[in-house]
Amino acid sequence: MAYNHKKIEKKWQDYWQDNKIFRADDHSKKPKYYVLDMFPYPSGAGLHVGHPLGYIATDIVARYKRHKGYNVLHPMGWDAFGLPAEQYAIKTGTHPSVTTKNNIKNFRRQINMLGFSYDWDREINTTDTNYVKWTQWIFLQLYKKGLAYEAEVPVNWCPELKAVLANEEVVDGKSEIGGHPVIRVPMRQWMLKITKYADSLLDGLDDLDWPHSVKELQRNWIGRSTGANVQFHIPSINKKLSVFTTRPDTLFGATYMVMAPEHPWVKDLVTNDQKSVVHEYIDIASKKSDLDRTDLNKEKTGVYLGANAINPVNGKEIPIWISDYVIMSYGTGAIMAV
Fold first, then answer.
1. Which of 59, 90, 115, 277 is such that its CA lies 20 to 30 A from the CA of 175?
2. What is the set of domains in the chain, with CATH numbers?
3. 186: part of which helix (H) or strand (E)?
4. What is the value of pTM for the model shown?
C-alpha cells in the first residue's frame, strides 16, 4: 500500500493544530526548555531551502526534549519590517500591511506543511503594535540605564532608498536591493553600549555547552584586546592623537601612522599640495562598506596627508597617512605601523 503523504500528513497536522499538542504550559511543573528559531522575513517569494535547513534541526531538539519530559517553548514569528516591503509599497501603491499579511499567511501555510512542532499561540509579528510597544519599553530601560546614547558615526547611506544599510546589504558600493549607489557619511543616530557587556559575555562562554569552534567564533567576534593607549603629538595642529596598541613594546619601530579617511582631524591635517589626492581618496572610500574595506584579500591603499606626528619614545617625526582599511568606528580610528 502506497504512503499517501498528502492525506496522512494533513490529517495529523490538523490534529496537532486543533488539539494544541505543542503548546507550552504556563504553569507546568516540568523542567523548562526554550527552543528559538531566527524569525524569517515574510517575503513574497515564500520559503526557500535555507529556512527548513535550520528549522529541521531545532525541531528535532524540541521534539526530543518533549519526549524527555521537558515543558518545551518552541515559538515562531515574523521579522516583518524591511526595505523589500517598503519598496514594494512604493512601486505598487499597496500598503505594506496588506502585502505583509498575505505573505505571512503563505509562510505559515508552508511551514505547517513541513510539520514543525511550533506553539502557534505564541506567534509574534514585529509589525504588531502590541509587539512594538515592548520593543519601545526595552529601549527606554536601556536609555534609563545609560546604555542608549546618541552619537555621530559613519553609516552606509543610500540616497535613493533614503535608508541606512547594514554592511551585508552593500555589494560593490551599491545597495543589494535595487543596485543604487551607497556612500559613507557621518550621521547622528542612537547607539547601544553592547561593549559594556563584553567581559561578561566572554566569561559566560565557558559555561555554554556549545562546540569549541562556535565559541571561538564568538570570542573573536567580541574581540577583547589588552593593551595601551599611546599619545602621538601632531605639531601642525598642536593636538595629541591617541592610538591603541596591544604591542607597546614595538613603539621604537613605529615608522608611520594611519587614520581612517573619515577621521574628523583629516581636514585640519591635510596640506594644500595634498588636498586633491586626499579628497579623491576619501570620495572613493566613502563608496565602500566596512566589509569591503577590511577584506584581508584586497590590496591595501592609502594617501599621505602631508602632516607628521612625533613618536613619543624617540622624538622622531613619522608621516601620517589615511587608508580605507582603518575604520573610524573601531578603536580610535587611527593606528601606528611598524
1. 277
2. 5-127 (3.40.50.620), 137-192 (2.170.220.10), 228-337 (3.90.740.10)
3. strand 183-192
4. 0.73
